[in-house]
Design a protein that fits this description.
Layout lengths: L1 H23 L7 H24 L7 H21 L1 H4 L3 H12 L3 H12 L1 H29 L6 H10 L1 H15 L7 H23 L5 H30 L3 H11 L6 H9 L3 H27 L6
Helix pairs in contact: 1-6, 1-10, 1-14, 2-9, 2-10, 3-5, 3-7, 3-11, 3-12, 5-7, 5-11, 5-14, 6-7, 6-12, 7-8, 7-9, 7-12, 11-12, 11-14, 13-14
Length: 310
């Protein structure tokens, strides 16, 4: 299992490093990167979410217990981060990055690991994880941006952001197709799959391109806070909720797996769109990706020592 985790995370590290090198070498014009971020946020990531949720096979999966475990644990950690806000000593935009670093997750890494560990059943479990966490996390993040972001949002603007957020809309649309059972047209399905597959490399290249280590010393506190929430508080809350709800076996393993994933590249894109601290967000994403190489295997090995994972 440790090998599978490391193999899934290695491409993430390499793509982030490549983006950093391309930007520093000025291989592409500076104007390319904002447009690539926009493409990822409004087209590629929504395609990924919609396709994975619309086409997942969810038979014989404990949908209710799994979804509730993920939603409740996310809410618990989100509430803890907000409660600790006065002690973090960061400004509003930086706090939005700490918040995102505490609750967001890298969908592609989770899907790859779940499929590698449990095969087709893992893909179905991963789809349920996405359906539960993606809307929850995006609603919470929009609300935090409205309160603490540089571009303060009115209640009407918050409602508009939630109603038009491409990640929320695509997730809800994918779940609707899943519930209706109609499937996707033969021509549309491979097109969406291809667009979704492009979201990971484009997003990670943009994260790498945004890295600026000139302010690295000021990142230590925020990065440590976000990473402690992500790799300690989040899996602990997930295991607690799972035990309370009777979740076990592969479903429990997948739930913990998704909640200990490093922050996704979409966090940086959202920070750019809604007035967060984008350089700090890129730093948190990069550092967590490296830390996850150690944290994820340790968490899963620790879990396997107490509960069956097969």
């Amino acid at each position: 299992m440790t090998g599978a985790v490391l193999l899934a995370l290695l491409p993430v590290v390499l793509l982030t490093a490549l983006g950093f090198a391309l930007r520093r070498r000025r291989f592409l014009a500076d104007a390319f990167w904002p447009q690539a971020e926009r493409l990822g946020y409004f087209v590629l990531l929504p395609s990924l979410f919609f396709h994975s949720l619309a086409t997942a096979r969810v038979e014989a999966v404990p949908v209710g217990a799994l979804a509730l475990t993920l939603i409740l644990s996310t809410l618990v950690v989100a509430g803890l981060v907000v409660a600790l806000r006065p002690f973090l000593r960061v400004d509003g935009p930086a706090f939005t990055s700490v918040f995102q670093g505490s609750v967001r997750f890298n969908n592609y890494v989770g899907l790859t690991l779940a499929a590698g560990l449990f095969g087709p059943k893992g893909i179905a479990l991963a789809a349920i994880c996405n359906a539960a966490i993606v809307p929850t996390v995006n609603v919470l993040c929009v609300l935090v941006f409205a309160r603490h972001g540089a571009a303060r949002l009115t209640p009407r603007a918050v409602a508009r952001q939630l109603a038009t957020n491409p990640l929320i809309v695509s997730s809800l649309a994918g779940m609707a197709v899943q519930l209706l059972g109609g499937g996707l047209p033969p021509g549309l399905e491979p097109a969406l799959r291809s667009l979704g597959a492009a979201s990971l490399p484009i997003g990670l290249l943009c994260v790498g391109a945004a890295l600026d280590f000139s302010g690295a010393r000021s990142w230590v506190g925020p990065v440590a806070s976000a990473s402690a929430m992500k790799f300690l508080a989040m899996p602990a809350a997930t295991v607690l909720m799972a035990f309370c709800l009777g979740l076990h076996g592969p479903a429990l393993t997948t739930a913990v797996l998704f909640q200990v994933l490093p922050t996704a590249s979409s966090a940086y894109i959202l920070a750019r769109q809604l007035g967060g601290d984008a350089p700090l967000m890129a730093g948190i994403t990069a550092v967590q990706t490296v830390l996850a190489l150690v944290a994820m295997p340790l968490v899963l090995i620790g879990l396997s020592a107490f509960v069956p994972m097969g």
